[in-house]
Amino acid sequence: MNDMTPTSAERAAKLEGMGCKRKRVEDIRFVQGKGNYVDDIKLSGMLYGDLVRSPHGHARVKKIDTTKAAALPGVVAVITAETLKTVNLAWMPTLAGDTQMVLADGKVLFQNQEVAFVVAESREAAADAVELVEVEYEPLPVNVDPLKAMTDGAPMIREDLKDKADGAHGKRKHYNHIFSWQAGDKAAADAAFAKAEVTIKEMIIYPRVHPCPLETCQCVASFDKIKGELTLWGTFQAPHVIRTVGSLISKIPEHKIHVIAPDIGGGFGNKVGAYPGYICAIVASIVTGRPVKWTEDRIENLSTTAFARDFYMDVEIAATKDGRVTGLRCYTIADHGAFDACANATKWPAGLFSIISGSYDFPAAYCLVDGVYTNKAPGGVAYRCSFRVTEAAYCIERAMDIMAQKLGMDPAEFRMKNLIRREQFPYTSAFGWQYDSGDYQTALKKAMESVEYKKLREEQKAKREAFKRGETRELMGIGVAFFTEIVGAGPSRACDILGIAMFDSAEIRIHPTGSGICRLGTKSQGQGHETTYAQIIATELGLTADSITVEEGNTDTAPYGLGTYGSRSTPVSGAATAMACRKIKAKAQMIAAYMLEVHDDDLEWDVDRFRVKGNPERFKTMTELAWAAYHEVPPGMEPGLEAINYYDPPNFTYPFGAYICVVDIDVDTGQTKVRRFYALDDCGTRINPMIIEGQIHGGLTEAFGIAMGQELHYDAEGNVTTASFMDYFLPTAVETPHWETDWTTTPSPHHPIGAKGVGESPNVGGVPCFSNAINDAFAFLGSTHIQMPHDHWRTWTAAEKLGLHA
């Protein structure tokens, strides 16, 4: 071999494939302010829409007078529910099988609910006209407490359902009841508790929070009356789903609807579903014959678009005296707001909450979830998690700490004793999930060794003694969390949305010169898909990542897919990408065999080429084969080099992690300082370590915000008291702690490249880790559980209740 010939390793490095810390190609346009967002779209003759919203949490709409608004110069139309009824669009279906008012139809059910839609020549004229719409309301009793939703005499939220005994998921047991859903074996769990030596029971509340992406929800609708075609640009995490839902609602044939999601400034689940603003913009464009743009402001986004969490979890653990868990039970009331608009798979009204057994070997477990209506905004999306997994992880991780405290065991040692062992994988949980792979003990040991856990506990013990002696007013807390997430929705046997299986897709076309384009059914909102998908192709096909264009978000060109949320892009569409590559590679191998005059089986793959076995000097590179595919294919073979794959995963994937947090709390001010946060993640095969680290940093920052201050709070009259960033905590670089990241690698055995997904994991594990650290600080004083969020006031109040300010 010529000494100048690049080695296999050198050629692999040049590809910048999987495992490479390749810089994000998207950032070239983003850092120069050249991104293309919905609000950048300007069409000739475009109108602007704005919404009249209710100031009441619950009221009858007695009268809507649009006369003054319609007379304002620049106003083109004012749309109400009565307008929408003429085209059968006053109500729309939700992804959860419920129906939702597009504009208030006789009642408003939550504050800031959409009442009327003003269309004008400018944003300013539309905003002015909104103030001129006169609405007469008759206030009604309000309920924002899910624990009171099914009590006798509770205000009836949904009068349209009062006579319906059945909901989308079975029998209803109260007029404010949506569904009952259960999983596990109740008899086995009850038997475990009957024999238990030690039990704990705690009400653990995960308050209502909001994804609050940087860019709010918005769209531009343009209806062509000549062609009968609708083009819709919008902030859509799942463009194809929006197209299908839009067709079902509007009755416009799906092939005449063109949905385009350009660059999106964050999603986190908030941009999965369809909102009234979208429907109103579409109707307004049809009515006026002109494009209509709708852009919500921050208060509208926080107070009316899809919330997350709002789970009230009454959890119990049974264990032996020596610390072996034997049973788990959990009853949950889920607050869904005024309409059930959760973005869950059809079969799972409470999402994947039955992952609540977490990373632990529970022999018996059972959970029951009741969904209820209240006078709050609808939603219930997977805010940086996979379908209620964050709620489950928070619940079990807090409960494990509470049990460890009762047993007098160290929380890390208690976890280590009960973690699923490596030799048990694939492991079937008490809820029936089959965990694909894991090495939990190794991960937790590495985490404990990395932070010198034993020394931290010794330091904490000394500080507690000093606190008792009055030598310090600071408490030290050490939070431990070990989580397992269930992502990659999903296997069609388990997951669908509106009857559409949750597969995903990739279409790859290699050009004659060896570059290519990959179109996918997912949609990035900042995850770096244009970078990472190209790296998968680079490794699979031996073409440089820079030679691959990745395109998403246009339903006219992308193959049908279910979008991006719940860490499903890599586990599902990433798998589709790899499988499409392998179809292309198989064809390329036949072309190489023909050119080299050998049998297919006489060739072997080497990074970027097929070479003859035993004679490596004879080879054809993938670039050479791309050219040959267009002019030198074997007789009977079609020219070209392209493939499409629709991937239906055989199972979910199960990423996991071990997190440790150290905090110092000033009991006199309630101020908490995060001294250290260590996050070890195992996401299987690592495609781009730099992007993984960025995803973990972002997820941990959101976890910090949730645990330490975020709450969408309603007062007794249904007023949202935290509807702007003046009141809703969004961490900045000033408040955000330093993150230490680490990893182990346990590939998924059923995934084509072994990847599991990582984007949601830090939020899933970060929240309970922060909360466990706060609670650990107070545990030696007799405190069992302090509810989130752990802001300064609530932490000070916890200290006050323990008599620390006397």
Strand content: 15-25%
Number of distinct beta strands = 34
Oligomeric composition of the shown chains = single chain
The residue fraction in helices comes out at 25-40%
Strand arrangement, major sheet: 3-7-1-16-13-14-15
Using only C-alpha atoms, the radius of gyration works out to 28 Å
Residue windows where pLDDT falls under 50 for at least 5 positions? none
Anisotropy-based shape: globular
State the secondary-structure class: alpha+beta
The separation of the N and C termini measures: 82 Å
Which whole number gives the mean pLDDT? 96
Number of helices: 19
**What can be said about the biggest beta sheet?**
7 strands, mixed
What would you say this structure looks like, in words?
The protein is of the alpha+beta class. The protein is built from 19 helices and 34 strands. It has a 7-stranded mixed sheet with strand order 3-7-1-16-13-14-15, sandwiched between helices. Helix 7 links the parallel strand 14 (229-234) and strand 15.
Question: What are the SSEs and their pairings?
Answer:
Blueprint: H1 8-15, H2 27-30, E1 47-53, E2 59-65, H3 67-71, E3 75-79, H4 81-85, E4 91-93, E5 99-101, E6 107-108, E7 114-120, H5 123-132, E8 134-139, E9 166-167, E10 170-171, E11 177-184, H6 186-194, E12 198-209, E13 218-224, E14 229-234, H7 239-250, E15 257-260, H8 276-288, E16 292-295, H9 298-304, E17 308-319, E18 325-335, E19 365-372, H10 389-407, H11 411-418, E20 427-428, E21 434-435, H12 440-450, H13 453-468, E22 474-484, E23 496-497, E24 500-501, E25 504-510, E26 516-520, H14 529-541, E27 548-551, H15 569-596, E28 603-606, E29 609-612, E30 615-621, H16 622-628, E31 642-647, E32 656-666, E33 672-682, H17 689-708, E34 740-743, H18 761-779, H19 792-801
Helix pairs in contact: 10-18, 14-15, 17-18
